C-alpha cells in the first residue's frame, strides 16, 4: 500500500472513530477543525460562505475567551483564503469584530493573535479609522497605545487634532522603542561583565547571544553616522558622538578597515558563500571581537561609557528621551 492510500485510510478511520464514539455533536470537533484547517489552504478553500457564516453564530456556544478568539482568527483566515465577499457581506465581518473586541474587553490579550487578527480585519474591509475610533471608545489611553503600537495603527492626519493626546503618546512610544533598541545594543556590545559571561547571560537574549555578532551588527562609526536619530529626537548629539567613537574603536580592531562592517554582514547573508569562505569571515570576526573586548577595559573606552551612562542604569538612560 502506498503512502497516499495509507494516509487516506488512516484519515477515514480517525474521522470514523470521532463519530462512532459520540463526538458527532461535540463542540471540541468544531474548535479543532476550524483551528487546524486554517493552516491547510487546500482544505480551507473547500468551505463555502454558508459554512463560515453558520460558524459565526456558533461563537456564543464557546465560553472560554481564548478559544473564542482563536476561532474568530480561524474564520477570518479562511475567509481571507476563499476570497470571501466582505464588501457584500460586511455585516458578518462586523459581527466578528464585535465578538473579538468583547473578548478583549474581558481581558483577552495574546500579542500574536491580536496582531494577526487585526491585520485580517483590515484586509477584510474594516476601515482603519473606524477600528481606531472603536478602540478609543472602549479602552483607556494606555491600552489603546499598546494595541496601536503592536499592530502598527496610526491616527490619520485629519484626525490628529481630535486625538492629539493619542498621537503624542504613540509618537513618544515609537521613539522610546527605537531608543531602547539602540542603547540596549550598545550596552551589550560594551558591558565587560556581559561579554565575560555571555555563555550564561546570552541564553536570555535571542538576538544578541554572541558578542561577535553583537559587534558586527553595530553600524555606527565615523564611516556611517546616524544623524537621522538626532533629527528624530531619539538620541542627543552627545550620545551619537559617543556611539561613533565606540564604533571607531571596534572598526580600528580590524586589520582591513573596509571589511566586515554591518553592510558587509548583510551582503554576506544575501550571497551564497562557500562553507570555507563563511568560516574564514567568522574566524576574522571572532578575532576582531576579541581585540575589541580588550579595548573595552581601557580607560579611554571606560571614560566614554561613564560619560554616556553617568552612573545610571541601562533602563533609566534608555527610557528617557533627550
- How is the biggest beta sheet arranged? none
| Low-confidence regions | none
Determine the number of helices (DSSP H or I, runs of at least 4 residues): 19
Total number of beta strands:
0
Distance between the termini: 70 Å
Radius of gyration over all CA atoms, rounded:
27 Å
How do you describe this structure in short?
The chain is mainly alpha-helical and 322 residues long. The chain has helices spanning 3-20, 27-37, 41-44, 49-56, 65-81, 90-105, 111-123, 128-138, 141-151, 164-190, 192-196, 198-201, 211-216, 227-231, 237-251, 262-270, 275-295, 299-309, 314-318.
Notes on the structure:
The chain has 322 residues and is mainly alpha-helical. The chain contains 19 helices and no strands. The N and C termini lie far apart (70 Å).
State the main characteristics:
single chain; 322 residues; mainly alpha; 67% helix; 0% strand; extended
